[in-house]
């Protein structure tokens, strides 16, 4: 029997892991990448490309290496915990080389359309039309995995800023920003306080005369550097926190997080405190912003009411004159025009079962990979989505009925709308551990902590209180990796390796005391969790 042919659209991180997932299930992938290289978002170029995500030269990833690696390919221990975009790209190339993925990619090939075949209700097949070097070609595929991300099309709401068209200075979207030199000695407004807005305000403030950071709602600011210098996400994204949140609820976790963030710096004093709770908006990660605010290089302002030819007037009535440039860090929109009627997107809202499968198709042979904005890493979520999707394509897993899927989608949307402030930004939100655990259940690879507590208590304890790393989903079930246990138990070594570049005396007695205390607390909590879950 001929292997099923799968079209993978996009050669970024999600596309590469989707190719690998296809190969692991004995499927035949063909990947279409519109540019001449892999990497997607993470391949920096001086000039933005049409139809491709674009980053600025200084970008450092917001998720640490242990939390963002692919599940059977740890990032080298000497790499920094938070990598520069060039190092992320290096890792992506290493991954592609290790698993020999490049030979499945057709570069400089644009997907024009993906249409159901006339017999789709029985075959589930798709006609995929592509164009390369001016020539169009049609191929038939048994399944399609769309891996194009959601940071391509800039959201530039100029209609919300009266007078901007007559503003004599420079204005553009953050997608087109590359470096701060062009703003030397200038007065600059950055609109938006997401991760890009915060990063740009900080970076430009090193060359500009003055930077104003304009925000409608304010934001809670998280740091990459967590307690005791460990990566924040490695401390936050644990199963223990996952279970505690189920026990105590979001309200207590919000209060705890807000208190911790205000201990770093008082958000009200710095003009950043929002009306919403910490977990009601995708948080902004920025270690440097409070330093630039306290030193006066960045001034936080409210929403811009209108622009004149040279000034900005804010909603509180204040005015800043002699503005030279305005940068809109106002997010992105996404769409899939080549899918035509198979998937509909309205104001960044899309109906997908488990954020992957359209529920309205007669056959589950179309999947969207990586269309999430997680509080955590996207690489491993895309990977485990790919593992599930290829099982479905192969017939190893089945989806619920259409009505059941629609009910599940509705519940997920209602939950999201209840938690997050209304925004085009908050339509594809996900929590890392929740998403990984749910998908792992579907794939059949979720670790059984109760069983491991008796057979391998050391490992079970690490799975409970340690960072919930992607490697944990290679311990058992389909795609089991023999190196998983060792890699999990040496997580701390890889976190520490790039930091310890100078030999210092360690306080073993203090370390032992802390370790024993943590161990006793963990055992007590472990007993509670086993009892109630």
Which descriptors would you attach to this protein?
533 residues; globular; 17 helices; five-stranded parallel beta sheet; 24 strands; alpha/beta
Written description of the protein model:
There is one protein chain. This protein has 533 residues and is of the alpha/beta class. It contains 17 helices and 24 strands. It has a 5-stranded parallel β-sheet with strand order 3-2-1-7-22, covered by helices on one side. Strands 9-18-10-11-14 form a 5-stranded parallel β-sheet. The model has no long low-confidence stretch (mean pLDDT 92).
**Which strand order does the major sheet show?**
3-2-1-7-22
**Rg calc:** 24 Å
* Helical segment count: 17
The count of strands amounts to 24
Mean pLDDT over the full residue set: 92
Helical content, roughly?
A: 25-40%
Structural class: alpha/beta
């Amino acid at each position: 029997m001929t292997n099923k042919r799968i079209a993978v659209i996009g050669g970024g991180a999600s596309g590469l892991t989707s190719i690998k997932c296809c190969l692991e299930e004995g499927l035949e992938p063909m990947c279409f990448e519109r540019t001449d290289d892999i990497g997607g978002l993470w391949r920096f170029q001086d000039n933005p490309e049409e139809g491709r995500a674009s980053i600025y030269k200084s970008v450092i990833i917001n998720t640490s290496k242990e939390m963002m690696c692919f599940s059977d390919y740890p990032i080298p221990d000497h790499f920094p915990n938070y990598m520069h975009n060039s190092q992320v790209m290096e890792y992506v190339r290493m991954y592609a080389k290790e698993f020999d993925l490049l030979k499945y990619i057709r570069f400089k090939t644009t997907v024009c359309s993906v249409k159901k075949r006339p017999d789709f209700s029985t075959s589930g097949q798709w006609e995929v039309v592509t164009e390369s070097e001016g020539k169009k070609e049609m191929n038939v595929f048994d399944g399609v995995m769309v891996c194009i991300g959601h940071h391509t099309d800039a959201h530039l709401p100029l209609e919300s800023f009266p007078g901007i068209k007559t503003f004599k200075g420079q204005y553009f979207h953050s997608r087109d920003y590359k470096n701060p030199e062009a703003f030397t000695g200038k007065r600059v407004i950055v609109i938006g306080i997401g991760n890009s807005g915060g990063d740009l305000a900080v970076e430009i403030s090193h060359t500009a005369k003055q930077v104003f950071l304009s925000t409608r709602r304010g934001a809670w600011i998280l740091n990459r550097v967590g307690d005791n210098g460990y990566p924040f996400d490695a401390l936050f994204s644990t199963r223990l926190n996952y279970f505690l949140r189920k026990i105590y609820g979001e309200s207590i976790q919000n209060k705890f997080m807000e208190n911790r963030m205000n201990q770093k710096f008082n958000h009200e004093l710095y003009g950043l405190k929002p009306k919403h709770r910490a977990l009601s908006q995708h948080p902004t990660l920025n270690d440097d912003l409070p330093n630039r605010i306290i030193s006066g290089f960045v001034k936080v302002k409210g929403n811009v009411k209108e622009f004149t030819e040279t000034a900005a007037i804010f909603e509180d009535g204040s005015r800043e004159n002699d503005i030279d440039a305005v940068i809109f860090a106002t997010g992105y929109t996404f769409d899939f025009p080549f899918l035509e009627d198979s998937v509909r997107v309205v104001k960044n809202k899309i109906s997908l079962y488990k954020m992957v499968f359209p529920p309205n198709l007669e056959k589950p042979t179309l999947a969207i990979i990586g269309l999430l904005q997680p509080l955590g890493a996207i690489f491993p979520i895309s990977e485990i989505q790919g593992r599930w999707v290829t099982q479905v394509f192969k017939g190893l897993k089945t989806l619920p009925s259409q009505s059941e899927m629609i009910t599940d989608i509705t519940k997920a949307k209602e939950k999201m709308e209840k938690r997050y402030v209304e925004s085009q930004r908050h339509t594809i939100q996900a929590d890392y551990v929740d998403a990984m655990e749910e998908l792992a259940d579907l794939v059949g690879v979720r670790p059984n902590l109760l069983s491991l507590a008796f057979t391998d208590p050391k490992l079970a304890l690490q799975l409970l209180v340690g960072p919930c790393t992607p490697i944990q989903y290679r311990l058992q079930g389909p795609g089991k990796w023999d190196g998983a246990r060792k890699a999990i138990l040496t997580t701390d070594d890889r976190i520490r390796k790039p930091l310890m570049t100078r030999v210092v005396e360690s306080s073993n007695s203090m370390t032992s005391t802390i370790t024993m205390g943590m161990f006793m607390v963990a055992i007590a909590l472990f007993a509670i969790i086993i009892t109630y879950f």
